[in-house]
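Handout, section 4.2: multi-component inputs.
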Amino acid sequence: MGARLPSMLKDAGLTAFVAAALGIFIVGFRTVDVGRGLTFDYHLVDLAVAVVTIFFGRLGLSLAANGLRWPAMALGAAMIAAGVSPLQLPSGFLHWFVALGGVLLVIRGAWPWANDAMAAAAKSPSGVVLGQAGAKWSGWLLLAAAVAMPFTPFADQKTMDLGVLILTYVMLGWGLNIVVGLAGLLDLGYVAFYAVGAYSYALLSTQHGLGFWTVLPLAGMMAALFGVVLGFPVLRLRGDYLAIVTLGFGEIIRLVILNWFDLTNGPAGIGSIPGPTLFGAVFAETPPAGKQTVSDMLGIPFDGNHRLIFLYYIILVLALITNLFTQRMRRLPVGRAWEALREDETACRALGINPTNTKLTAFAVGAMFAGFAGSFFAAKQRFISPESFVFIESAIILAIVVLGGMGSQIGVVLAAVLLIGLPEWFRDLGSYRMLAFGLAMVLIMVFRPRGLVAHREPSLRLHPVKPGGSG
Amino acid sequence: MAYFSQQLINAITLGAIYGLIAIGYTMVYGIIGMINFAHGEVFMIGAFISLIGFMICGMLGIGSAPVAILLVLLMAMAFSAVYGWAIERTAYRPLRGSFRLAPLISAIGVSIALQNYVQLVQGARPKPGGQIVSGGFNLFSADGFDVRVTWLQIIIVVVTVVLMAGFTWLIARTSLGRRQRACEQDMKMAALLGVNVDRTISLTFVLGAALAAVAGMLFLMYYGVIDFFIGFLAGIKAFTAAVLGGIGSLPGAMLGGLLIGLIEVFWAAYFSSEYKDVAAFAILVLVLIFRPSGLLGKPEIEKV
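Output:
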């Protein structure tokens, strides 16, 4: 240890120095508007605290990596204590920063033990049984929870809203999973198809008076058509070029929506979009001319929550259809071709699979589900504008798929709950949400490229892996 | 004619800025075959460091514009280079040998994180940079229209040309350039012959980031306003430039930058300014579909 400590200190010092160089201008001098000009707020003390934290954090990580778990954990505990102490740090964020750094260090220190314990538990006979049962039943349990959710006592308006939002992202995640997870095509413009679906419904309902259930399949087909038209010329391209081209297409569609004033009303958006109906009955307190309200039809007193519960079940069913469709597709030749293509395109071509057509089906199917979700989104919001369809939405959906483990269905659900649900519950951290998103994407690629919560397993293997083995 | 000449001058200025950013994309793509999606953010950070640098110069009472520009230029290059190095070290190097799309996804993560980092610490509002260089002269007059060249435009073009020349020399003549070209051709062979591959890749990022920072400073001086989101559009356009010129080719990046500048400025001047970004994206899509190897690039052969 004595010999290694100086090198660890040197390494930590270097890291802290780099952090200081990164932060000195951007963090240290905060530009503030004063009248028409700018002036500075100095935050050099913040920077110093952050740099010291980074120094100790890096030192702790090196200690843990060299097997010195106790010192690392002690350092982590000290950082947590400093973070939560009444010590006057210059900003609330720094308290979080220091404390979270400490938490990470403690976790890092305890990780090998936790890992060993988990592996041992998974290998023990009861662990194997439990693991198999978990793999088999966890999806059904989640489904049961989702179905029962509106009848639980804590299903107030806020929770239901959140539930609808999460399910929308689950559906989008599952749709994108077909493109990214199964077929291995990185689509950075997925939100464009979502926009096509949303604008299809908004325009057809407000201008031609068509209902939600009529437009839903049309919107899906419309989006799929866009997928084919856009996909056909570009799917010959290699993976990363494809990603940039889809990004370009996504932006083109958004800019066209933004500027084609006659059709889309430009940045002002389209308002008063009718919501979905239940067998022709609308969700409202007083029926519009010639319509019946749901509460009259069913003979129950009016409640504003009914509409939300109805929307919740629509999106739940739509999402489940997406999931079921994907599960079935994976067993069809075309689904197997998607996965084979993801693993090795050259080999596929040698085996006579037409890569362009195969990719095109994945692209179109993924686009179709985005179209469904889009028309649902328009019906739920009753107002849409180009602002809902910016690149960052595509990135969020991609982050859900990546975090869940590309190709894994249950992973998408957990990732959507994590990425959409958590920030909504912790509203105060709202502005840090996207920062955490970006960092999470990097960290997952570095440490768990196959996803945080699940593995990306091929549907079919030549030599099946034994359960409990190192698959 | 006068209107055309004026637009041409504006287009060359803009093209020079895009070209400087495009070099970063093209070099990184050439050496490790990845699209450094975060490069646009390095450009944005370079612009912010320049803004703060000019303000510090103002506070220290450095009144002479050339001295201030030179100081800020060096500062922005040095500190943005640290960003380039740190991004490569933390987000890309651990991914070498991971699956193909992993570095790109990681790069998108870096891009989102950097944008929000700057938004958090510097605020979301556009930052006015003030005018550092003003004035210019009339080139000629025709049709009652003065064709004007500003000193700033001259500075931008001169800085770009000097940096380009220096850079071409660096790649063609120095041992660093030789190592870099060796890694580009065959990384494993280069490593066997004693080239420190990791360090060469790091240096590529450092150089690319320094050039992006120069572009950021010029952008700040030219437009006078920056915000945390400028990296996204400028990054995509510069990437388009790199692809148009032939990714992996240095003269191609410069040529592509000029062409993108021309297309954008003339589209806005003669058609519609709302759709000028659509024009840039459409060019990107068309080039990738019909000539993926670009104007000056070599066609890529897929190896098994």
